[in-house]
Amino acid sequence: TQLLEQSPQFLSIQEGENLTVYCNSSSVFSSLQWYRQEPGEGPVLLVTVVTGGEVKKLKRLTFQFGDARKDSSLHITAAQPGDTGLYLCAGEGYTGAGSYQLTFGKGTKLSVIP
Amino acid sequence: DTGVSQNPRHKITKRGQNVTFRCDPISEHNRLYWYRQTLGQGPEFLTYFQNEAQLEKSRLLSDRFSAERPKGSFSTLEIQRTEQGDSAMYLCASSPVYTEAFFGQGTRLTVV
């Protein structure tokens, strides 16, 4: 079983501050995705990283995939109240017999206070 | 195409009743996943289809749960003899082969 550990579990910060969320595993993933989820809704895909060491930027969000493809981080610059939500990382791994599985971490619940 | 569609959005049922949820994936997406999510947790994998074939099934999926994807298009998830512990958000996602998953808005099940 592939497990993903996310930290911190909860994060409450003031508007304008920077933050980093971590996603760690002992397993190697073929790709890793970050999602944001709001209460009562399904997760919305933010980014996919595939190559070890890859860095992707999405406006104020910077995503990094570890060199060994076992971990990832999400950095938000100058957080805004609209960034509030549950941030989930998910790793895609091959489970054998032609099957892939997307395994999720428990998420980081971010609150940005105006 | 408007994305992954799930119906119903909300379902309240009495313990012991059967319920069925439907998921319409994005057209031409080969892969379809079902997940379950409880409050404060990330989505837990239930089952995975590639086209019409159910290739993976979690140990979380007891004998009361069954999923189908006839013709490799829409999928249904049925829960028989519901229990209070089945109360959760049931999420469906679809993806083209070997890339990221796109989720529907989920079906919120409450068993009373």
Description:
The complex is a heterodimer of chains A (114) and B (112). Chain A has 114 residues and is mostly beta strands. Helices cover 0% and strands 58% of the residues of chain A. Chain A has strands at residues 5-7, 10-14, 19-24, 31-37, 44-49, 55-58, 61-65, 71-76, 85-96, 99-104, 108-113. In chain A, the strands form two sheets. In chain A, strands 2, 4, 5, 9, 10 and 11 form a six-stranded mixed sheet that branches. In chain A, a hairpin with a 6-residue loop joins strand 4 (31-37) and strand 5. In chain B, strands 2, 4, 5, 6, 9, 10 and 11 form a seven-stranded mixed sheet that branches. Chain B has a four-stranded antiparallel sheet with strand order 1-3-8-7, with no helix packed on it. Chain B is globular and about 40 Å long. The termini of chain B are far apart. Chains A and B meet through strand 4, strand 5, strand 9 and strand 10 of A and strand 4, strand 5 and strand 10 of B.
Keywords, please?
heterodimer; A: 114 residues; six-stranded mixed beta sheet; 0% helix; B: 112 residues; seven-stranded mixed beta sheet; 11 strands; globular
Question: What's the topology here?
Answer:
The complex is a heterodimer of chains A (114) and B (112).
Chain A: E1 5-7, E2 10-14, E3 19-24, E4 31-37, E5 44-49, E6 55-58, E7 61-65, E8 71-76, E9 85-96, E10 99-104, E11 108-113
Parallel strand pairs in A: 2-11
Antiparallel strand pairs in A: 1-3, 3-8, 4-5, 4-9, 6-7, 7-8, 9-10, 9-11
Chain B: E1 5-7, E2 10-13, E3 19-24, E4 31-37, E5 44-50, E6 53-57, E7 65-68, E8 75-79, E9 88-95, E10 102-103, E11 107-111
Parallel strand pairs in B: 2-11
Antiparallel strand pairs in B: 1-3, 3-8, 4-5, 4-9, 5-6, 7-8, 9-10, 9-11
